Amino acid sequence: MKKMLTGILSASMLSLVLAGCGASDKPQEGATGEALKGEPQKLVISTWGFSEDFFRKEIYEPFEKEHNVKIVLEIGNNAERLNKVRQGSSDVDLIYLSDYYAQQGIDSGAFEKIDRSRIPNLNEIYDIAKAPLGEEYGPAYTIGQFGIAYNPKLVKTEVKDWKDLWNPELAGKLTLPNITSTTGPMILDSASVVAGSKEFNEDQAFAKMKEANKGVVKYYDKTSEYVNMFSQEEIAVGPIMEMYFKDIQAAVPEAVFVAPESGGYAVMNTVNIVKGSKNKQLAEDFINYQLSKEVQEKSAKAKVDSPVNTSVKLTDEEAKGVTYGEATVNKLRKLDMKFVNEHSKAWIDRWNREITQ
Q1: How far, in Å, CA of 294 to CA of 124, rounded?
Q2: What are the C-alpha distances in Å from 153 to residues 80, 236, 237?
Q3: Of 60, 183, 226, 326, which has fewest CB within 10 angstroms of its CB?
């Protein structure tokens, strides 16, 4: 945002060792690579609850069969799951978080440092996704775009860029994200951009937000609020993540999604290994699998996650509602999440005093 607001034994050897020692046939902790016979290892993954059936059938089950693993899920939102890990009240191995919350996990020492040499598929993904929060931590396995949606039936003026949200003609038709939402800091940064700042300027950003405030119907906290307001024509325009546009279009077929001319914002979901995991190598295997062309292509075609693997090829129809292609991804703005986390409390306090008082 500062710049405007990523020791395997062979099967035969293993059999001999186990037979000689009278050991059980349970795989050793940390054993990876080819699936080992015997009782499956348990890999605990902390994630969101969306598209759970898809992930279970298309992503988790193939990995379980190949690695003789049983994947157990802990479901919840970013904040709940991160707090549980930081408190040490779970046995999670891998955790999926937005980059905003992942940075908090890094700052509190909640994650292991990854061994990038064990994750060769990192070489196959967009540069922006490789080390969004530093080389020692996990990659972004998907990147969404935060852009603008509008209803052309109700909005007669052109909407092409962030500055258009300040058009007085949109007064009474506009929604914006609350500062406490994942995309709140992004709309604050866009206000600084519209104000003409080359680097983030807090005072100019808040001054511009005060101007927009006059026309805002409601500041939304959840995407479901946005979709409901849009479908009921309580609003006609506002910024939203592209991955949710399909829900809007299902209710309002004529709706349009705009990738802002000056660049949308990168919404990155990351995967990290939790500190103290006894299955670190297996977790790294899973990260590598998550970044593979096969998995990335499945998720993209199902419109579950936008791909970061550059070898994934989608037709125009398959790419609808998906943040796809090098030209699109390279144009996205990326916030400095460390900077955001350092200033978020002050921004929230100021927002409550000056914007939503």
Answers
A1: 12
A2: 40, 9, 11
A3: 326
* Dihedral angle of Cα 318, 322, 323, 325, to the nearest 10 degrees: 0
Strand extents, DSSP E, the chain: 41-47, 69-75, 94-98, 140-150, 174-177, 216-220, 237-241, 256-258, 265-273
- Would the pTM of this model clear 0.85, i.e. be above it? no
User: Which DSSP letter does residue 303 get?
Assistant: T
- Mark 261-288 as b/e (b = at least 16 C-beta within 10 Å): eebbbbbbbbbbbbbebebbbbbbbbbb
How confident is the chain (357 residues) per 10-residue block, as mean pLDDT? 41 35 40 60 95 95 97 94 90 96 96 97 97 97 97 95 96 96 95 96 97 95 95 97 92 95 95 97 98 98 96 95 92 95 96 92
Residues 6+ apart with CB under 8 A from 253: none
